[in-house]
Amino acid sequence: MTHPSASRIVGLYSDKAEGWIADRGPRLVAGEPRGLSEIDWFERFMTALPPGGTVLDVGSGSGWPVAAALIERGFRVTGVEPSPGLRAHAAETLPAGEWLDGDMRTLDLGDRRFDGLLAWHSLFHLSPADQRIALPRILSHAADACVFMTSTGQKEGEVIGEWRGEPLYHGSLAAEEYRTIFAAHGFTPNPIDPAEQDEYGNRWVARRG
Fold first, then answer.
1. Contact 114, 54 (CB under 8 A)
2. What domains can be seen in the chain, in order of their start residue?
3. Where would one find the signal peptide in this protein (predicted)?
4. For residue 32, what is the enclosing H or E element?
5. 3-31: pLDDT as tens digits
C-alpha cells in the first residue's frame, strides 16, 4: 500500500511554496558529500543539447535554480508545475521561460517535441505505480535526438523523509525497470557508476538519436 504522504506532495509544495523557494536557493549545488555535484550533472545535460535547444522541465518548481541555469545558457525552457505559487514565481522572475500548469501523471502537450527532457528531483516524489504512468508520458515528448535526465532511488520502494514539519514522500522503481522504460522509447541510459552517484539515489542521463 502506498504511504498516504504520496497524495500530499502537490498540496505540500503548494502550501509551502515560499519555504521551498527559500530552501532550494538560486544556484545549482556545487558539491555533494560524495559523487558528482548537481553542477556536474547539469553540465553533462547541457553539453548534450544543441545550442539554443528546447527543454521540457517537468516538475519545474519555482524555476530556480534549474530552469534559470538553462535559460542563462541560452536554452528555451518550458516548465510544467502544478503548484500555483511556485509557477507564479517562475513566471515573474524568469519571463524568458514558458510556464504551464500541469501534473506529470496527466502530461499531454500534443505533438510538441523537445531536445531535452528533465524530471530532476520531481519524478521521485511519485509512487512507483504513478511513475509507470508519468515516465512514458514525459518520454513521449522527445525529439528524434533527445537527452533526458532524472533522479531516482536505487531500488523499488518508498522512503518517507521530512520537510518543514511534514512527511515528504519519495518513491522509486528498480533500476532495471527504468532501463526497460527508457529502451521502449528509444533511449539508452548511462551505466550506473557508484563513484558518480550520491548517497540519496541514482542519476540518469539517457540519450536518443
1. yes
2. 4-208 (3.40.50.150)
3. none
4. none
5. 999 999 999 999 999 999 999 999 999 98
Number of neighbours of residue 161 by Cβ within 10 angstroms? 11
User: Which single residue is written with the C-alpha cell 551505466?
Assistant: 191
The reported pTM is 0.97
> For 28-49, how does the pLDDT look when each residue is reduced to its tens digit (9 = 90+)?
999 877 889 999 999 999 999 9
The x, y and z cell numbers of residue 105, run together, are: 501523471
Residue partners of 74: CB distance under 8 A and separation at least 6: 51, 52
CA-wise closest residue to 56 among 106, 109, 13, 131: 109
Rounded-to-integer distance, Cα 103 and Cα 80, Å? 7
Mean pLDDT value across residues 64-88: 98
Q: How far apart are CA 67 and CA 172, in angstroms?
A: 24
* Residue-by-residue DSSP string for 54-66: EEEEET-TTSTTH
Q: Is 176 exposed, middle or buried (0-12, 13-18, 19+ CB in 10 A)?
A: exposed
- Measure the CA–CA gap between 57 and 126, rounded to whole angstroms: 16
Cα–Cα dist 147/138, whole Å:
12
